[in-house]
Amino acid sequence: MSDIGLIAHLMRRAGFGASRGEVEAYAAQGYEATVEWLLHPGDPGDFGEDLAKRRAIGFDEGGAAFELWMVRMIHSNNPLEEKMALFLHGLFPVIYMSQGRALLNQLDSFRRHAFGSFRDLLVALSSDPAMLLFLNNNDNHADAMNENYGRELVELFSMGVGNYTERDVKECARAFTGWTLGNADYMAVRAGKNSFDPYGSIAWHYEYRPDDHDTGVKTFLGETGDFDGEDICDIIARQPASARFICTRLFQFFAADTVDAGGRRTIDEMVETYYSSGYEIRSVLRTLFNSDYFKSEQARYARVKGPVELVINAVRMTGASPNPAAGSAGANGATGPMGQAVYRPPSVEGWHEGKEWIESGALMERVNFVAKLFRDPSKQGVRDIIDRIASSNGGVYSPEETVDLCLDLIGPVRASEETRAHLVEFASVGGDVDLRGDDRGKSEVRVGEILALITATPEYQFA
Amino acid sequence: MPQTNGSNGSHGDRKLVVVQQSGGNDYLNSVVPYTNGHYYDFRALTHHDPEDVLKIDDTVGFGPTMGPIKELWDQGKVAVINGVGYPNPDRSHFRSMDIWHTAEPEAISQEGWLGRAIREMDPKGENVLTAVNFGVGLPRALGCDGVPVASVGNLATYGLFPDMEDEWLREYALEAFGKMYGAAAGKEAVMGFLGQTGTDALKGADILSTAPEQYSSTIEYGSNGIAKSLKDAAQVMFADFGTRIFYATHGSYDNHAGLKTAHPQLWTELGPAVTDFMDDLEEHGEADDTAILIFSEFGRRVRDNGNGADHGSGGVAFLVGNKVKGGMYGEYPSLAEKDHLDGDLHFNNDFRGIYTSIAEDWLGLDAAPIVKGRFESFDLFEE
């Protein structure tokens, strides 16, 4: 049986956290087996999309689509698949523009390519309608180049500044001329008449137009030929800068915000796997999750939780409605004020993560949202924690015992001595917690308040 | 709350409001060189017609939807700083915005220019509200180790544990929160930063939550994001918390497409938001003590791409206020192709000159440590 703390760590990173019951089940099957299960998503489950549509009346298309994604993050049987979709949305951000369905289609594409070859992912991205529209590749013509997508592909989506020239940007953009939206004007009209369906059933689709493709010879990163977009993705995928880019971003998203010496060695191993596996992201992730670094104590709580992670984790842990059609329990709408409204990133570079999630207003929003959920003993997840405490030993607990049990069952959260002392001080306000008999109701409320204050600690802001 | 002590510059009452136009505001379609033939050549499909331009003189005019800015211009309250940029322009949004934020074009820095200014005003960080950001996410311009900055997404709901019904217990929870974050503030790295942020948030919340109830005004702001941010800024300013720096963000101005549609639309939000804010300042006696800087990370490419324009370099900044000396500053860069810098307008005014002028002539601070050097300043303010 694997260590509970290690499995809980894996599930916070490769998923959106897990209840103690789930963690125990994964621990029984073992760490590596759990990693393999995460890396091979199966049937995601049913998210009550048809029912959710009724509930979504009143949302705009985007709001309805984001709500559906939130519900899926909460309920999916494939936590890593959804976590990867979130990672890829942050890596290749698109700002919502009028078509909910196009975004849902993009997420499906991310899920399809999340564990496959990075090269194929780039090709899929380059022909993704939401991306084509967002970075104006539909305005990138053989006779009037628009370099927006070409630039961001090399700057933000793969190699990064310093690994290409301004000329490479232009040649890259030329190769993507003719990659456009099919029948765009007509589709816009159709989509506009599509208001009964909250996500829209009509969406833009990709079309390649050979007559609008610049067939001239291009020189890109030192290679010369009549390149099309796919050739460009081939060339990009084999660049060492691209390998390092994707491995580093995966490392920072899943392992630690800051890359130290040990982190650099782990990234080196990931880069090796990247090449030996034919750029396969599944293999790269396997190397990461099974690395000594990822499993080390040092990696635990080394990332600031992103708002979506934090919120989905809290909704899952407190027990969302078993019926997905009941909605996301306010998750959609809560993450924006914390700094991460999905499909509304601040710019094409996505969100600045880590330390930059922290500012005073966002911190308050985080604390208020999560504490409110954990304060409520009628929530199934909170009930489970209380029941576990009640059955642990005797039924009467000192403030210290209560705090320690709560810290363990909600995480385990590793609190500093000072934090623990102040939690105990707060817990002492009402004396011992008695979960036997008549006073149980009152004591449950107090356990809820202690759990809520734990979620407000500095430590809890880290994953 | 009284103004905190100290070396807050010799103009302790003066405030700076910064409006960031994120994404690269197009210079040519904001301050339009409507009599210049090159403009129509390079912007064959995306130019504004001369009859639509709000003419300033016989060479330039504001874009068609910038009526409110033109109104302020006519009152002598708008300085247009032409051709702003920095050496070796970078066309990356990310890097260029970073350079504007940190005022360090060469080095990679984590320290914002306003963060450094705040440190000068309040060296001990005694007032957690010396600077307030209105919006989500803290701009790097305000970041500086040990400098408290409040970030307010929504002023009306700013506060901790609002739904705890038992006020008595809530007091204990707030006390515990303060102690836990206070202890964390002494730690290293991100934990220390988080601890400081939590500590400042708790202090700021009690004060800021009183702002909306104190506010009363005849001005009705628009409902868009920038109007809302400036209204929140007004509420905080009028509540007299000693706030000197106000920061708000508007966008996205990344008009690779929609230079004739989306770009003018943005100005229909920003222009009225600024005039409403100015009227509100006037109504509350703050207009003479407030200057507004409007800037973007770069201007856009001279030649359009058919529907929009790609990333460029030389851009335009605006300074607005009663005490601003209205007028044109610096020359409009040449539009002739031979004078372009790799397809972009050649910057001819270093943006750090604007910062220098604001720091010294407006805020009364020594500019050198804030902008990291000496730069020729503009004479932007009345004595």
Structural overview:
The complex is a heterodimer of chains A (463) and B (383). Chain A has 463 residues and is mainly α. Chain A is 55% helix and 3% strand. In chain A, the strands form three sheets. Chain A has a two-stranded antiparallel sheet. In chain A, strands 3-4 form a two-stranded antiparallel sheet. In chain A, helix 1 crosses helix 2 (20-29). Chain A is globular. The model of chain A has no long low-confidence stretch (mean pLDDT 92). Chain B has eleven helices and twelve strands. The two termini of chain B are 29 Å apart. Chain B is an alpha/beta fold and 383 residues long. Chain B is globular and about 70 Å long. The chains are: A mainly alpha (463), B alpha/beta (383). At the A-B interface, helix 10, helix 20, helix 23 and helix 24 of A face helix 3, strand 7, helix 5 and helix 6 of B.
Which descriptors would you attach to this protein?
heterodimer, A: 463 residues, two-stranded antiparallel sheet, two-stranded antiparallel ribbon, 6 strands, B: 383 residues, alpha/beta, nine-stranded mixed sheet, globular, disordered N terminus
